[in-house]
Each structure stands twice: as C-alpha cells, then as structure tokens.
Amino acid sequence: MTEIAILVDDVSKCFPKRRSFASLMTSRALTQTSEGEGKWALRNISLEIPSGSSVGIIGLNGSGKSTLLEIIAGTLLPTSGSVHRQGRVAALLELSSGFNPDRTGTENVLLNGMVAGFARSEVEQRFDEIARFADIGQVLDHPVKTYSSGMLARLAFALHTVFTPDILIIDEILSVGDYFFQQKCYRRLAEMREAGVTQLFVSHDLALVRDLCDQTAYLRGGCLAYWGSSSAAIHRMMTDGPLCDPQAWPAHKGELPRESQISFADAVWQPRDGQESRLVGVRICREDGESTLIHTLGSHITIEVWFLTSPQDRDLIIGLAIKNRFDQTVTSINSSMLGCHGISHTGTALRCFEFELDLCLEGGEYSLRLGLNRPPESDETHYQSLDSTDWFGPITVNWDYQNDLAPFFGMFGLPMSGKLRSEHLLTTLASEGQV
Amino acid sequence: MISCTWRHYELILEMVRHDFTQRYRGSYGGILWSFANPVAMLAVFTLAFGGLFSKGAYESEGGVIYYALNVFPGLLLFQALAEVINKAPTLITGNPAYVKKIVFPLEALPITAVLVALSHLFIGLMVWGVIYGLFFNQVPYGAMYLPLLLLIFAPALLFFGLLFSALGVFIRDLNHIVVPFGQALLFLSPVFYRTENIPLKWQLLLNFNPLTIIVEQIRVVVAQGQISDWVGLILYFLTASFFCAMAWRVFQWCRGRFADLV
Lengths: 435, 262
Fold this sequence. Notes:
By secondary structure, chain A is an alpha/beta fold.
C-alpha cells in the first residue's frame, strides 16, 4: 500500500471582503466568515496524493490553482476542510518567495534556511552547494532587489532543492530560467523523484505537465473538474466548453441580466464595469451547437459574441481577429464588413452576434480576439474600441494529415471553386476506338 | 511560547543583527549612530531644560545636568516602548511575503522588534552611565541593577508587540492610534516629574502605566544604589508575563487569518 503524502480533505476557501472598522465591530468578522460574502476561490476540493508521485495542477487563470498550492504549503488556512502533510514541505510559490529584497543573496539563503528549520551551521555547510547550483557568481553579495527574475529563480530553486524536502511545491517559476538552467532543474527534479520526493507543480506549460506528472488535477472555477491521468486532464481542459456561459444568464428567459447575476467565474478576460456597452461572453460552437475549443478542419463553426448595448452607443461594430501560433494575423474582420450595419438599441440589452465560418485553416492552434467598436468619427480613420477581449485560446483545428486527404494544403483554404469547362476534343481516340 | 522562541533563536538573532546593520547601511557613521544618538539626545535635553525652560524646579537638587541625567533613563525607556508600539501594527502587514509565501514563524517579528528596542535601550543606558560617571566622578554602582530592570521590562514590551502586531492586521487604523497612545503613556509616567509631586488622584492612574514602576526604580537605583520596591517589581513582572502570555494566545489565534487579510 502506498503512503499518502498529502491528504486534502474537502477544502474550501473563501476570501472575505475587506471591511470597515464599523462593520467589523458589528459583524462576526473576527470569528468566522459568513458564507455568501467574499469570493470563493476553492470549493470542496479533495485529493489524495501518494508519497513519491508527481502531481500537476492545471486550469485557467483564476481557477484557484495557486490558492490550492498555498493551502497545501500551509501559508493559507482553508475556510473549511483540512490538509494533512507527511514530512517537510518546501514551497516555491512565487519568484521572490520569502526573499527580503534589501538583503544580499547570501543573507537570504541563510535566513530562509533557518526559517525552514535548519541550524545556522547546517545552512553554512551546504552553502557552497547552493551557490554552485544557482551559479550566479558574485551577485550573491548584492541585495536581492537588484536580481533579475532568472537569478531569483535560480537562487530559490537551489535553496529549496539542496535540502531535499519530502514534498516539493513549485508554482510556475522555472519558466523564467534559461534553457540550460531549466535542463539542470529537470535533471534535479528527476533525481528527487528517484529519491521519493513528492512533487507538486502548477504550470501553464501543458507539455511539461504531461511529461513530468503522473497525475493531474484540473481546476475550473475553484472546483475540481478532473483528477486522474495527466493527458486526460489536459484533454478535459482543452475541450472544456464555453469560456463564459451565456446559457446561465437569465437574459435567455427574456429578461435583462442584472450585473450581479452574470457570473464571470471562468471568463478568460475580466469585463470592465460601468454603464457603457461591453462584451460579456464568447462561445465557439460546432455545427451541432456544442460549445468546444477543438474543431475539425473544414467544419462549419459559429462564434457567438454576447454583448451589452447601452443607449448612448449607436452603430456598434463587432470585430474578430484570429492569429496563428507565430503571432501572425490570419484574418481580421468585423460585422460592418460582413454587411451588418448599425447594431444599436434604444435601451440596455444583451445581444448576440454570430460569426459563421468554414474553418479552412491549416491544422494547429489559433488564438482569438473579439472587440466591440464604434465606427470612426468623420475626421478619423480608425474604429474606436469600446471593449475587447484578450487574445484567448487556443482554438485547435484538427486534421489527421497522415491518414486522411486534407481538403487543401498550406495555411488557408481560400474560397475557391473549380470546374471543367470546354469540351473541344482535339483527338477522339476513345470515340474512334468505339466507332 | 518560550520553546517556540528557543527553536528559532538563531533566526531571531539573525534578524536582530540585520536590523542593526540595515538601519545604518549606507551611512558614514555606521553602528556608531547607535551610540551617538543617545549622546545627541542627552545634549538636546540638557540644553532644553537648562537653557530654555525655567531652572527653578530642579536647581536645588544639583542643577541642570543632574535633572537631564535623571530624566534620561526614563526617556530611553519610553523610546523603547514607543519604538515597539509604533512598529508593531505594520510588522505583519509590512511583510506580506513572510505571511503568504513561506511558512514563517511570524511571532519572530514582534520578538525581534522587542529585542532590537531593548538593545537600543541598553546601549543608551550604557552611554548614559558613562556620561553620568564623567560628570559626577563616581561610578553609578546601581547601574548593575539595570539589566535586571530591563529583563523585568521585557514582557511588557512583548505584550504590546504581540498584541498590536496581531490587531494591526485586522484594524488598519491602529498605526494611527498608537502614536498619540505612546505620547499619553509618556506624559502619564513619572519621566519628567516625580510621582510625589503630582495630585493624588493622578498618582493612582500612573500606577497603571507600564512605564511608571520601572522609571521610578531606575531613578532609585541610580540615587541609592539599590532597588527599593522588590515586591512591586515582582508583581509587575508576573502581571506583565501573564498579559504577555495572553497576547501570545491572541496572536496565535489570529495568525490563521493573517494570510487572508494581508
């Protein structure tokens, strides 16, 4: 039977709202957070992480990954539920985690070693080893605030891995290291895995998660959406439905949404507040209406853009841009170009614009950006942007080039038609033969 | 509480040491300022009480220098207390990395603040002892009792350090309150006057001031070479230790919520 290194038992975390002194006096703020107030970052997470395994945690920004790591590391206490850890935990939660910017690298190493529970003499003994691994030379004698992010990562990683912990927690910090340092780190991580160190990663580098982790937890909106094999978790994350689910809004039942009723829990961009017109959600649907980020080359898709109009903004224009993975704009088009002029409304309304297209793009990953614009004033040439999303994605276009004949090769399938026209036969071998 | 402090004593010592080097880093005087500051302060007080204010009250007792030297230990004591209570409310909130990013023994922060304050107090008293000796051509033998008095004073300091640093996280207004609070403690203690010289009802109030008995006993120790109120001091020490233990409880109880609020 394998031993459990970390047991996360039904953990929820709510960040209370900051309160004024007056409300602090009148409420139970000091004792317990009342539910319904504040923001729930995690809900009912339960995980059993076996000793010696490597575990990844993935999810979109704001899905609660870092909060979960902080709770596992013990710097945050869960609002409810509990965490049990077996052995000494070393956590690299943030680049400069625990470093005092005014102290030199050497002093920080000493101090952090002592914080981790080692005697001064032990830290001094291992100091050369740490310095050698970090390999940042004379800089060690300068204050940490003068370090580059790469140097910080090197020092932090060296410090936390030289004293082999029982559990190592890493929150996306290796990505700032250069190629050779990353190699060195992965070699060290592999050594530690051999030695039976339980490892926990948060990363947006899905390939890394797939390669390093035995098991992966996929968080979505603070809930554990999937817990199991890494590739399955990644697949779940990539295929998971709408970025922001308009179905959940009461608007669909014929009434206007109120601010508080719209949930942005898993949106990839944060909509701005205020009265002006703005985007509220995006869905990308297959022909059968299912919302997904993975599509087949050549399939007919619909991009739904949900937006709020306000009376003062007339003639709204919805823009769409697609980039490929080399950051080249594949296409950029808007509703006006598509012949849909003057989207406006006399009141505040939730509306949806649909882009329909045949996905004639080379197989691969694409990112999307949608914008809400006003037409240019008479003396200007550019659209005025009212709101826009970040570049989000990836939208995956699938094609099995090995086994199926693609409808086209190259970057796009340009709208093209072909037909056979003339029938002026020069030689009529066949007919001659027949005659 | 003691075991926890002991477990991290190396860390705490390192932090105290760093506080000293950090304070004077980049200055030409360096650590000398720790000694120069009390000297300068003493000079200013001598000037203020000797040159600017009326010389009446203490003239009979040996002159301006005598008065200044008498006031000085009390003032140093107050400075130590003020340093702790002014710094405490922002100790936790000012070190978010320690709260959120690593598992740090947070109680080391107020303990460090107290030790730093006590060290400055001790240096100040040494400077004062030397100057006293130079002016009166006699070694103040009573000064031998000073370390003991500092030890008795320590739990009171720690009480304020722990309590205010924990509460400072919840009540951000605290760091605006502590300065006038400190001033009140100063003027409600017999630093500038003697307890016997003020109305009786005020004397009672004075007894609740954590500075009072220590200030008085330092004065007695200097004048008579021995401690006059052992019972008072022991009671004071026990009470302060009790409050300090309570503050420790409060601190531990609050710390789970620090990370949410910092």
